Amino acid sequence: MKYIITYLFVVLLFPLLSFGQTHKIDSIIESKLTYTSEKPVHNILIQIQNTRGTKSFHKGINHKGKDSILVSGQEQFKAASSTKLFVATIILQLMEEGKLNLNDKASKFLKNIAFLNFENFHLYNKQKFSSQITIEQLLSHRSGLADIFNDKEEDFFGILLQNPKKTYSPKSIVELYFKFKLNQSAHFKPNEGWHYSDMNYLLLGLIIEQIEQNSLAESIRSRILEPLEMNETYFEFYEKPTSKNNLIHQYVGNLNFSEINTSFDWSGGGLVSSNKDLITFITSLFDLKLISKNSLQKMTDVQYTKEHEYRYGLGMYESKYNGKTYYGHYGFYGTYVGYCPETKTAISYSINQALADFNRHTFVSGILKLIE
What we know:
By secondary structure, the protein is of the alpha+beta class. The protein is 33% helix and 13% strand.
């Protein structure tokens, strides 16, 4: 597999960032890049924007090796699980429109989808609990559903690498779920714990399609991307790319996932975006351009997940960076988008390596500390 060795650092900061600070940030970034290890980090993209400021600092660097490519400063990347923020936003929009309630049972919208076999979707101690799952529990990962990617990671990767170009659909993802007998492996009864599962968001994606009577890709585009003019964002494999040859390569160990059909991510992580677009989205969300204040409060009403883990609300993590509280979501390939209501600061980054040898939270905290 041929690696594209690219180094990109894009940052939109506050006014009057000194040369010394810039040099320190460069050094932090450069210290994390590695091209020859089993977990290469070929590029890092980061953008930080304070909506109180009137000026910005912007910088782009690319590695000058023989395989390097020119970069524009706003390459696209797989946003991964940050997609869940978009799905959660649409669910809350539908709630505001009176088309669903958060305490509605998911079965109300899913029971007639034959391939779901929803009655048998959640078995705990050999008892069926699918009928008890609510939309709110899906949003907050409190349904108890098992997950293909977390609970059967080795089995899933084995199947994936046998045919890396295979195109998946919600139906084929559900077929894998039953093939792995994950329906019989629920972690707890609904609302009796927390377990992160993309299956929650697969079901939410199907609920949106049942209500809207069009594809999830169309709903995301008409409800979020077009109103916000997010021209660098699209639902990969489910609609045409918004630009060509602008997608950064992202890795899992030494495996280049840009050479794999990742249509299996769908509603749990299928968006391609850029830092610019993701910051547009997260600031618009907190500026109440997409949902009401009441709905936003529901999203940010976080609860503890597991010991030593971040708190989670409705499609949204709470994170602390240097003592400041941010709300947003992390993604598989080392991505994140979040917003700090206290300082009105938005941050989006992509490390582009799922298994990086460094702590990305500590890494970003160090950059933020230099510019706060």
